[in-house]
Amino acid sequence: SIFEMAAFGDYLYAGTINFKQGFQIWRTQATGDPPYAWELVIAHGAYRGPLNQGVVSLAEFNGALYIGSGIQNGGIDGVNRVGPAAPELIRLYPDNRWDLLVGNARETPDGFKQPLSGFRPGFNNLFNGYFWRMAAHDGWLYLGTLDWSRMLPYADRERWPAWFRRTVDRIGLEKIIARQSGFDLYRSADGENWLPVTTNGFDNSYNYGLRGLVSTPQGLYVGAVNPFGPRVACCEEEQWRYQDNPEGGLEIWLGSQA
What we know:
It contains 3 helices and 19 strands. It is mostly beta strands. It has one domain (2-212). The strands form 6 sheets. Strands 1-2-3-4 form a 4-stranded antiparallel beta sheet. The longest helix is centred in the middle third of the chain and has 10 residues, at 162-171. The radius of gyration is 19 Å and the shape is globular.
């Protein structure tokens, strides 16, 4: 499947999902008669393999194309036994050189790559499953995530790898949700130095994904994914019950200069 496409320079870029080998980035100038000639630019999930399963977001910023990865189903693909793993951020130049900005250091056919931001995958957050949306606004690149920790109480634990079950059991569901839940929104003026705007869904742990970013003259609009309303299932004394949830339901935020 192709999840994302973007125009950059003289090319149309397409990002794929590949369950076995990791994402690919292709480009075409779309000249002449179709079918057009396509060039493979990056393969094997930027040489991280299936842990960079798919391209989830693309954005042009300051003369480069930024690529956000992710694993389907929020960062853990039980069907294909991939993950859990957090996403990476790649910066691609018109001459096909690329940088690893957020991710795991590794050897590649293009040389040794280390994260120029200093952040490990997911901005050091294992529960960031996607780098879901990016947009340039007022000289900054903004990047929003999906943080799936709010889904932990409802997840099928039998599909989790043993190491992940042990990790969750050791830390505890309540503590993970309290510390991690809610999407992250980061911004950068150069692609390498990143500042957090929010790491808790604007103080709403049920805002588990940032799906929309739109730059306008009025400011930057942010659309949140929040399917936990108007009622949410809660477990109390080993009994599941639905309760009203005033924090459930989609939200749209507007950020502007003071």
